[in-house]
Each structure stands twice: as structure tokens, then as C-alpha cells.
Amino acid sequence: MFKRLxxxxxxxxxxxxxxTLLFVGGDEFRLNPAQxxxxxxxxxxxxxxxxxxxxxxxHRLTRSLPWNRLSKEEQRQRVTGxxxxxxxxxxxxxxxxxxxxxxxxGGSVEVTDLESQLERLKAIRNELRNDVExxxxxxxxxxxxxxxxxxxGEFIFPPVDVRLGEPPRLLVTSPRDRIERTHDVLxxxxxxxxxxxxxxxxxxxxxxxxxxxxxxxxxxTYPASIPxxxxxxxxxxxxxxxxxxxxxxxxxxxxxMFDSAEMQTLNETIAGLVGREIGDRAFLMxxxxxxxxxxxxxxxxxxxxxxxxxxxxxxxDEEMRLTRLRVDEMLGEGRIxxxxxxxEQRRNIFVENGFFIRKLNQAFFxxxxxxxESPASVSxxxxxxxxxxxxxxxxxxxxxxVAGISSYQEFLEIG
Length: 415
Hints:
Layout: H1 2-24, H2 33-38, H3 45-64, H4 72-103, H5 109-146, E1 162-165, E2 169-175, E3 184-187, H6 193-207, E4 209-214, E5 224-227, H7 232-249, H8 252-255, H9 261-285, H10 305-312, H11 316-332, H12 336-352, H13 362-368, H14 381-391, H15 395-403, H16 408-414
Parallel strand pairs: 1-5
Antiparallel strand pairs: 2-3, 2-4
Helix pairs in contact: 1-3, 4-5, 5-9, 7-9, 9-14, 11-12
């Protein structure tokens, strides 16, 4: 029985690997300047799939045996422990960074001790990873089934499948004379800052492209590659986000994702909006609490001194949106160098106010502009989706209706 099951899993892995390559790799089979320049650092999807897919399903099979099953309480304890260790790891990493800076090139006993503590903590956390992933997958699946997104009974297709770890980085390019997402290349997660800058500079000089290597929240590989070091609520939201990409792959919305910039924005923004809703419900199922801020009271009097401090506080979203609009205006008038100098000035202002953006250029806006709810976007799609969602009675119906959209014009017509 086990041999037959392994064989079936192997064929399933091959099929889903092809899905991954087709979905993630819109440009992967065409040689372009970004791929050429980044070739020493390109992320190996095939190797990642081989290392992760079968091992996850074998673990799932092992856990399904009666004598290996975990109780609901044991599952929750492991999830709680894993994400508590994430917080401890962040604290240790901060202390280690400080100790290294203070010790200089000579090293110290404190640095060695902190490194050992961090490694031990990560090793313990990794022992919990498979079970934590199983709980995340099962909880999200339960929410999906409640919303009528199951295929047969409570069976979800494609099955929710995530791998907590370190996703690749993404190289994004844009022409310099306009903001337009042209090429995406997945980059190894351990690429150093100097190497990122070298790739970006070479694309600028050799191909006249604005380029940026960025961290991303997750990748819709199968299993989805999700950062393993974040909070539980964020992890559930991103896991649901990436599952929606898997789900839409088999439907017109996903199959037409790369037909236009609007369709790519639709896909990403729907996945973000719905992923947060599903993730938050899964978070509540796992015992989390979500605080809802009360609306600010109306004031009839003039603002006090304390109130004025709040008014003067740096508003990242507003400042980023103003920056994007000004850059679009400059580029539209052909003032490329002036726009680039302006973006660097603005980046320095963001840094001074505690928002540590390494590089602000056309590629930054091209990537973030794909997500219509981002302050770096000028797309109306975010507001349009929120209005449409408010008109649809339940999440399952909303997902079903948007999944059948083949074009942005079709979306406008049904909305």
C-alpha cells in the first residue's frame, strides 16, 4: 500500500511542479536582461520542490496513522510554541547584532553564546515546523469549507499546502521612462546586499532598466513558500493569499493573470483582500484575538497641543502616494533624471522618519503598484474591489464570482 501511495504522490508532485513552473515563471522560459544579469543568483525552483514537496506529504501520511495523531490541544500547543520561539529568535537576533557591533572584528564570548542560543532555538523550532504547517493548512481548509469553497464534502482543491522557511527574493525591473513591471526573476534568499546592488547597477548601466531586488511575503510555489519567522496572524493571512493563487490558477482569473497589468493587479489585490479575511478567521479559530479600534470621537473644539502632535506626525501612506503621483507627472513629461533625483530625496525623508527603504525607484513603484491597496499604487482597483465585496453577501460567493473573470473590462461590467 505504501509503495502505491508513494508512486501516486510522486506523480502528483510532478504535476504540481509543472503547475509551479507555469504559474511562477511567466517569463522563465525567455531569456531577458534580468535573467542574464541575475544568473549567478537565480533561485532553483526544481531543487526546492524536490526537497520540500514529498517530505511534507510523507509527514502528512505518517501523522494520519492512528498511533501518530496529535490531539487538537497538542496541535495548538505546537503552534503556540513555534510562534513564541519566533519572538524569542527576533529578540536574540537583535541582541546578537548589537553584540557584533560592539565587539568589532575581534569577536567575543557574548557573540559566541548568542549565536549558540539562536542556533539551538532554530533547531527546536524546526522540529515543530511540519506539525505547525499541518495545523495551519487544516485550519484554513476548515474556513474555506465553511465558505463553500470545497469540491466534495470538505475536500479542498487544490489542497492547502504551505512550507514555512525562507522564500526567495525577487528581482523586479521597470523601464526608466515609465513605471511598468517588465521582468521578474526569483533570487536566492541569501544574496548579500552588495550583490543585490551589483545586479541593480548592471541592469541600469547595461540595459537602461530600473531594477530592485526585494523581500517578498510569499511565493505561490506548491507548497507555497512562506516566511517562517513572522507572527501567527500574518502567516495565516499570507498562507491564504498564496492558496488563492493556486485556486485561481484553475479558473479564468488566474489563467488570464498576465494578459494585462490590470489583470495582474486584480489577482494580487483579490488575493490580498480575501486572504486577510480568511486568515483572520483562521486566527480566531486558533484562539487568537483581534482588537478593533473604536472610531475616533468627534471634536467640536480646536485641537490641543497633544492633538497637534498627532496631526503633524509623518503619514507614510499619504507621503508615499504623493511621491508616486509626482514621479508619474515627471516621467510623463520626460524628466527622467529629475524624477530619479526626486525619488532619492524622498527616500532620505522616509528613512529620517523611520521607514528604512533601501532604494526608491521605478521598479519599487512597479512592484508595489501591482497591489492596488498599497500607497505606492495609483490603481482604482482597490476601491472598486472593496465596493464589490460590500455588495456580495458572503465570501464564497464573492470568490466564485471573481474567479470567473477573464478581463478587467469583464470585472467592471459585473461590478
